[in-house]
Amino acid sequence: MTAPTADLPLDLPDAQLPGVLGAALTGLYTGEPRLPARPGGREAGLAALRAWTGAGYRERNHLSGNVSRLSMYLRHGMIGIREVAAHARHVLRGRERDEFLRQLTWGEFFRLVLRQEGARVLDNLEEPKYPARWTDALPDDVRAARTGLPCVDAWVTHLIRDGWLHNHERLWFAAYLIHWRGVHWRAGYAFFREHLLDGDIASNALSWQWVASTFSNKPYFMNQENVERFSGGRWCRDCTARCPFRGSYEELEARLFSGRLPEEAPTPRNAGASRRAAPAAEVGAAPIQPTGPTSPRVVWVHGDGLSVTDPALSACPDAPALFVFDRPFLSGTPIAFPRLAFMYQGVRDIAAARRAPTHARVGAVAGELAAFARAHGAAELHVTRNFTPEFTRILEGVRAAHPDLRVVVHEPERLTSYDGQVRRFFGFWKKVEREVLQGAPSPDAPRRGHR
Ligand SMILES: Cc1cc2nc3c(=O)[nH]c(=O)nc-3n(C[C@H](O)[C@H](O)[C@H](O)COP(=O)(O)OP(=O)(O)OC[C@H]3O[C@@H](n4cnc5c(N)ncnc54)[C@H](O)[C@@H]3O)c2cc1C
Description:
The structure is a single chain. The protein is built from 18 helices and seven strands. β6, α17 and β7 (406-410) form a beta-alpha-beta unit. The protein has a five-stranded parallel beta sheet, sandwiched between helices. A two-stranded parallel sheet has the order 1-4. The radius of gyration is 22 Å and the shape is globular. The protein is 43% helix and 7% strand. The chain starts with 16 loop residues before the first helix and ends in a 15-residue tail after the last helix. It is an alpha/beta fold. α9 packs antiparallel against α10 and α16 (365-375) crosses α17 (389-401). The model is unreliable at 265-288 and 439-451 (pLDDT under 50). Flavin-adenine dinucleotide is lined by residues 60, 67-71, 74-75, 103-104, 106-107, 110, 166-167, 170-171, 174, 192, 196, 198-200, 203-204, 207-208, 211, 451.
């Protein structure tokens, strides 16, 4: 096992962050070290939440619509899904409120699918609903924003510059890459993972699969009219390119999918049943009850819980806590620097808000946690569960490296109490609608429609 690494300073001002963090994380990121387009951390997340009035959310499918842009804070647990829902209930009314809460529920749905399917969400969950032949690599002209299509090049430019895209831009880009360029959705997933500040295995992989039709009944695609309408014509107005999106839906369907798509392909009744033997992200069988309030303990802070309100941190206010930038994982699949800086800002806020010490390191997470627990004479390691395959892998590594350490897993905050199987959002929504809308759904609450 490698020796534990030195701590990163957790009081770096933003101006020093690219230089110092950039040097510490060399080889683990792509691009130049720079600050994220929006600052990370609970304070910044709360400020963004309070500033969002929601007025005009009904226009959310338009790029000019007042969407919340809270996804990066939600994804890293800097703000909680329940406090966002409470804010929405306070500032929004009627259909607009219901629509926002329904969108928020998509995130919960995807996390539950990840909990159920584990690492399988990175493979086709179902067969594509058309005869697809996909290549594996992201084409160079797409990566370089040089396709010659002003809209596509703008989506790539915004993705890299801002680390965020409007949902409609994500859908259009995904459809372009998969259906027009014939690229496997996994290449798009990896490109988004690299650059999005909210990049998240569940929402990202499953949204790509939704567009590809490997997690939906039909592929999603758009035409030029759709792009023009919801973008306010910003790219189409002066466009001189030969537009591949021009045409009616019927014409495009025939061109892209070798004929007509199934009207409503039924979900295979037992799709995935044979592969669903055990919840993939379950933590091993070891007992996970705390021994008592006084047993020496440490807390593992990870990228899904970057807030002092994280359940494990809240349960252990006096315990030393450790966050680790996962060197082996990031050196295999590096991500753009702004997200690492965004996460650092989250840990920095935690350190400033706690009375017990908080540390950050770069290394192999399991080994660092075991060494940290030993150094503090801890009998327990507390952590809040997440559903990623890495979580399970890391806890197994901790148990191997420190068999005497008791691992106490706290449950993450949920928007709903639903615990059954999940397959399609619509079915899930029917089960949780009343709970999400607080038992008082408006009669005209949206039932179907655009994602
Ligand atoms: C190909 C593709 C990849 C995506 N990858 C991600 C990802 O990695 N991480 C991520 O958080 N979202 C992802 N999304 C979903 C969605 O685009 C973003 O959550 C949304 O655009 C974030 O902007 P917002 O915060 O202003 O959303 P708002 O409309 O203000 O919604 C509020 C919150 O609800 C949740 N939400 C809203 N819509 C969705 C949705 N369709 N799916 C899941 N959650 C939703 C998000 O947490 C969001 O912050 C992806 C969508 C597509 C089509």
